[in-house]
Design goal:
alpha/beta; 6 helices; D-Maltodextrin-Binding Protein, domain 2; about 230 residues
Amino acid sequence: MDAVTLRAVTLIGKEEPFVMVSENVLGKPKKYQGFSIDVLDALSNYLGFNYEIYVAPDHKYGSPQEDGTWNGLVGELVFKRADIGISALTITPDRENVVDFTTRYMDYSVGVLLRRAEKTVDMFACLAPFDLSLWACIAGTVLLVGLLVYLLNWLNPPRLQMGSMTSTTLYNSMWFVYGSFVQQGGEVPYTTLATRMMMGAWWLFALIVISSYTANLAAFLTITRIESSIQ
């Protein structure tokens, strides 16, 4: 049984290194070479068919026309003048609606080279996870809670041990609230029930704020490393 001969359409001049003319002798068929030709030769030997190659008459890849027809290499396939097309043809949804593509064996994209940006040291980078307004609110909350703790202990003084030199001054109250916010504890033994309830709520608030700050700081440092200067 004779092998089937397939007509293959291609383009010349735009296809290096996929399809190139290797021999062009007057009066003889042109001979072609290139990566796509090597693939076609391998398929021909494996599947047992012959092929002949011709160039698309209008030397175009193929695009839809106003009347719904196709020109170029795709048009040769649509009108069944060719059995297969050999080309570095971009796969698009419109073309996939009228012809079948093999699995692509090369992806091509355009990139832009940039000079790496110079690294600058920001002394206040640790403040970046929160806005300035939020930092101001936190500072105001520390002062307010410190004042409330002082007032609660002034209205109901705690019982201190004999000989204790610790005093519940406004300064000590502020320092105790700030120390508990940064998870360093405090030095003033507040034993009244109202103060303990106040500090219990404050510790919960501090835990939520510190956890949010830690998560946002990690995300901020990661995004800073991978973000591009061109959008």
